[in-house]
Amino acid sequence: MPQRLRFVRPLDRRRPGAYLLVLGALAATAAGCSRAAPAPVVPAGAQPVTPDQVASWVAPTTPEGHQIYRFKWLFQDERSSAGGSGSARLAGPDSLRFDVRGPLGAGAAAAFVVGDTAVWTDPEDIIQRLVPNFPLMWAMFGVARLPEPGRALQGAADGATTVWQYVGAGDTLSYARTVGEKGRLVTEFRERGKVVGRAETALGPDGRPLTARLTVPSVPARLDITFVSSSDTTAFPARVWRRPPPRQ
Fold first, then answer.
1. For the chain, how many helices (H) and strands (E)?
2. What are the start-end ranges of the H helices in the chain?
3. Most buried residue among 99, 144, 183, 199 by CB atoms closer than 10 A?
4. Could you give the CA distance from residue 127 to residue 122 in angstroms, rounded to a whole number?
């Protein structure tokens, strides 16, 4: 089972930037956080597929080299909203350093993630506050994850769209990826049949994220990210991956 993280509902007004990683699902209107659960990403009747097939579908989403993304974000729940700016540094195949802040630099937060593990976070509880699990976090950057051992694999490919899912004891992680001028990656995690989080990420022709929306129905809450730039770069210096010094 993908590592499940605790999602704390109240918005910490002292740390509005901390709510960047509520990476849930991406497709509701501002009033749509409490709408009915959407249809499953992978239709009923999907056929068993092999690990090699799944690996070939995941591979185009896996980061290569080094990229820097800059973005704006907006978090909303039933009671309040907060927004700001941020950046993310990705190093293929599975390393991510993100930094976020609110207006005028308030609520700064950062984390270093490798795969499904948070190497460090600042503040310590930032990821636990915000993300149902790491696959949904990665999905907001247009990245799909390989299955854990022992999962039942199902999927299908039809033209520009490929759907696949990993089914375990009580939980299901599903993906739908469409390529082309209006590409997108839809990712959904269900536990005992209920949607825990759903992320919808619009992709450019190069597969990089343009916008992302994460919806967490149980809160309900929504996080929107608008990517304002992306660029390739050389390898990051070692200091990028280090925990920042204590804040004064």
1. 3, 13
2. 51-58, 126-130, 134-139
3. 199
4. 9
Please determine, for residue 82, whether its predicted confidence score (pLDDT) is greater than 90.
no
Query: Mind giving me the DSSP string for 56-82?
Result: HHHGGGS--SEEEEEEEEEEEESS-EE
In terms of pLDDT, which residue wins out, 50 or 31? 50
φ and ψ at residue 179, rounded to 5 degrees = -105, 160
If pLDDT is split at 50, 70 and 90, which confidence band does 77 have?
confident
Q: What is the DSSP string of 41-55?
A: SSPTTPEE--HHHHH
Separation CA 156–CA 141 (nearest Å)? 23
pTM of the model: 0.84
- Backbone φ and ψ of 49, nearest 5°: -130, 165
Task: Specify whether the CB–CB gap between 46 and 238 falls below 8 A.
Answer: no
